[in-house]
Write a structure and sequence with these properties.
There is one protein chain. This protein is about 20% helix and about 35% strand. It is an alpha+beta fold. Among the domains are: about 265-355; about 455-719, Alpha/Beta hydrolase fold, catalytic domain (Rossmann fold, 3-Layer(aba) Sandwich), CATH 3.40.50.1820. Strands 29-30-32-31-33-34-35-36 form an eight-stranded mixed sheet, with helices on both faces. It has a seven-stranded antiparallel sheet with strand order 6-7-8-9-10-11-12, with no helix packed on it. Helix 2 (about 75-105) crosses helix 11 and helix 6 (about 545-560) crosses helix 7. The longest helix is centred in the first third of the chain and has 29 residues, at about 75-105. It is globular, with a radius of gyration of 25 Å. The two termini are about 35 Å apart. The relative contact order is 0.11.
């Protein structure tokens, strides 16, 4: 099945460690006829899910930092002493914070219990219509629910299904299915399994039939595709990097061969299958530059052919139709995405011809190729659009989607000849609704297995805040239409602003709960994110990072000026790299907010970017700059880095969630940040006797389970 451009631009979860339980795999998996349960969450590439692999040019939102700390010292004695001292410090800090959490958390238990009950009620109410996406191959339909892969017949109305795979039966009860690939002749199935507490995935290849049999288990796999019915290509992951591509055959002469090896540490390699299954693409990409090699699926043993040698600043992604390559690229001016084409035999950029260019300040969210058309999912001024490009009539039709919609989710379309494109729309307070665009009828159709309750009491407002340099920054605001005196209501502000990634505005039960309880929700689309296209990201990275901070400040001040809450009722929420701007605002303008909630936050930019031995530091230089080689970057990063700028002052209360198994955000850095922040707040309180002076709550919850911003729904309810 094929995934769209969101894989290229947005979501990505990584693969994890090899499970020891793999040795207990059975050689067969019994089939049975059962009624499949419905399940809300499906984590599978190529379908509506959050764990999706990224083809080329992706800005990888979760591939940020590594916690594999260590100090390189030439003297062995010094190295041993340093490691022991570092480990002891880490252990003492962790113990101190765990004791603090155990003392404080009981205070919140009554409120936690009430919120959990409300969230579960909302979850049950708004997920009754959820159905796992189907992959149809001829008369066979494949789908995944509750850790099982099922096979049914398209014309079977009785609901009979065969079980092809079960995580529980094969000893993977703590894992979920992340990705599924069916071979063209449906004789083999490849599945990747990932646990929420780890980063790497295990790939299991099964031979299908009356009794499915496990044929191969491959640890530490990131992406994989079937080139033919018995040839599988896959990438391996080590230390959060993917740089090798292998080919494995399931013919009579089984063998595994290294096909491609990337030498540049800034580049990450994955593989993708064009929609018509003609080519398998090997995509090597950094944050700003791409290179693609083609494997002809008709001759999978031949050497890959280069499309266009990497050119600094040029990102491109390949699709194929009728012996022509369709190239989604940033090549040319302006440096936004364009759809171009070139002959397969003459694929160099000198032969690229423009098909369609995305307008300025427009975000290309997703892209899907079909036999005679392609669809672009676009975002402009906060509104979502479909652009349908016909390769037959050479026309472009633009369709504006419902104004309440904030988020797309493209469904899988394994057969590129299909006449309908399915997708889902949602917002933080609107549960997903299924839509379809019909190429034959040239119209948009709204689908619903059961009618989703419409949220009628929530008002959506789109604002523009003028930043320090007069740039207009979009804000999306949600509030209860029945609320009066909005200036007295609590406000929750969201921010991210990094890697060209949009703020996550998909449906979440807790957001709807807050609306029903009178809260105001605001999403600040600051520079560094991708809401207004590639230039919006470029204007907020490296030496422009402070622009994102100025944007955030302007957004919050405008909200207060317009009567949306006030500082003493305002909270700020951020996750991962969003912690940079949130933490910076907490230092520069603590009086704008009363509380801050951070999840796995990046709060020590300077020290992380100084450690080039960490596996991801070099490629991160394209986002943050290189402080080791450029003194200007050293001073610039130091000017906004949250950890570096903590000082005695009246801080807001802070709640941070961190994960012991997080391989992207060093736990030691979070521990040190919390200790330093708490000390600064106490120092300020001890020096002042101002009436009404208060000591903020600074709380850290270190969770033993879960990994970087990646936990199950049940565990996220507790959080």
């Amino acid at each position: 099945s094929c995934v769209g451009l969101r894989n290229l631009l947005q979501g990505l979860n990584f693969s994890v460690k090899h499970y020891s339980s793999i040795n207990h795999l059975q050689t067969t998996c019994p089939c049975s006829k059962i009624k499949a349960k419905k399940c809300h969450i499906l984590n599978r590439s190529g379908c509506t899910c959050t764990c999706r692999t990224a083809p080329l040019g992706s800005i990888l939102p979760w591939r940020f930092f590594s916690c594999k700390e260590g100090t390189r010292i030439s003297s062995k004695r010094k190295q041993d002493t340093s490691v022991v001292t570092s480990e002891l410090l880490h252990k003492n800090l962790l113990k101190s914070e765990q004791e603090n959490w155990n003392d404080i958390s009981p205070i919140y238990k009554p409120m936690t219990k009430r919120i959990k009950e409300t969230l579960k009620e909302l979850h049950n109410k708004y997920t009754f219509n959820s159905e796992s996406p189907r992959m149809r191959f001829g008369e066979n339909v494949y789908f995944e629910e509750n850790g099982c892969v099922f096979l049914s017949k398209a014309d079977d109305d009785e609901g009979n299904v065969d079980i092809l795979f079960s995580t529980d039966d094969l000893g993977f009860s703590d894992a979920f299915i992340q990705r599924i690939r069916i071979s063209p002749d449906q004789r083999y199935m490849a599945i990747s399994l990932k646990s929420e507490s780890s980063e790497e995935a295990t790939c299991i290849i099964m031979k299908l039939g009356h009794f499915p049999v496990v044929k191969k288990v491959i640890p530490s796999v990131f992406s994989f595709e079937w080139a033919t019915s018995d040839v599988l290509y896959y990438t391996t992951q080590k230390n959060l990097k993917c740089q090798n591509v292998f080919m494995i055959t399931f013919t009579n002469q089984k063998h595994t061969k290294l096909v491609y090896a990337e030498q540049d540490a800034r580049f990450f390699v994955d593989i993708y299958l064009t929609k018509d299954r003609r080519f398998l693409t090997i995509n090597s990409n950094s944050k700003t530059t791409s290179e693609v090699w083609l494997v002809d699926c008709r001759n999978p043993f031949e050497l890959p052919a280069l499309v266009q040698a990497r050119t600094k600043g040029v990102i491109y992604h390949i699709e194929h139709r009728n012996d022509e390559l369709y190239i989604l690229t940033t090549y040319g001016e302006p440096a936004e995405y364009k759809l171009m084409k070139a002959p397969v035999a003459s694929s160099g950029k000198e032969n690229w011809q423009l098909v369609y260019a995305v307008e300025k300040k427009t975000k290309l969210v997703d892209f899907e190729m079909f036999s005679d058309d392609c669809i672009m999912f676009l975002k402009n001024a906060g509104h979502l659009y479909l652009n349908v490009i016909s390769f037959v009539s050479h026309s472009v039709q633009s369709i504006k989607l419902p104004t309440w919609a904030c988020e797309f989710e493209l469904e899988s379309h394994p057969e590129h000849t299909t006449s309908t494109c399915y997708f889902q729309l949602s917002s933080p307070v609107h549960p997903p609704k299924r839509f379809a665009y019909s190429f034959k009828e040239n119209n948009l159709i709204e689908h619903a297995v059961q009618e989703v309750p419409i949220i009628t009491n929530c008002h959506t407002t789109r604002l523009l805040a003028q930043s320090k340099d007069e740039t207009l920054v979009p804000i999306t605001v949600f509030h209860n239409m029945n609320s009066k005196e909005l200036h007295r209501k609590p406000l929750l502000v969201h921010v991210y602003g990094a890697y060209g990634i949009d703020l996550n505005m998909s449906f979440k039960e807790e957001k709807l709960m807050l609306i029903e309880e009178g809260w105001i929700l605001a999403y600040c689309h600051v520079r560094g994110g991708g809401e207004l296209g590639l230039s919006w990201h470029k204007d907020g990275c490296q030496h422009n990072k402070l622009k994102g901070l100025h944007d955030l400040k302007a957004c919050i001040m405008l909200l207060h000026q317009l009567g949306f809450s006030q500082p003493k009722h305002t909270a700020l929420a951020a996750a991962s790299a969003g912690g940079v701007l949130a933490g910076a605002l907490c230092n520069s303008d603590p009086g704008l907010i009363r509380a801050m909630v951070l999840q796995a936050p990046f709060v020590d930019v300077l020290n992380t970017m100084m450690k080039t031995y960490l596996p991801l530091t070099i490629e991160e230089q394209e986002e943050w700059g290189n402080p080791l080689e450029d003194e200007k970057y050293m001073k610039y990063i130091k000017s906004y880095c949250p950890y570096q700028n903590i000082k005695p002052q009246c801080y807001p209360s802070v709640f941070i969630t961190a994960y012991q198994n997080d391989q992207r955000i060093p736990l030691t850095g979070v521990l040190q940040y919390v200790q330093k922040l708490r000390k600064a707040a106490l120092d300020h309180a001890s020096r002042t006797t101002k009436k009404g002076n208060w000591i903020p709550n600074i709380i850290l919850d270190v969770q033993a389970n879960g990994s970087h911003c990646d936990s199950s729904w049940e565990r996220s309810v507790s959080e």
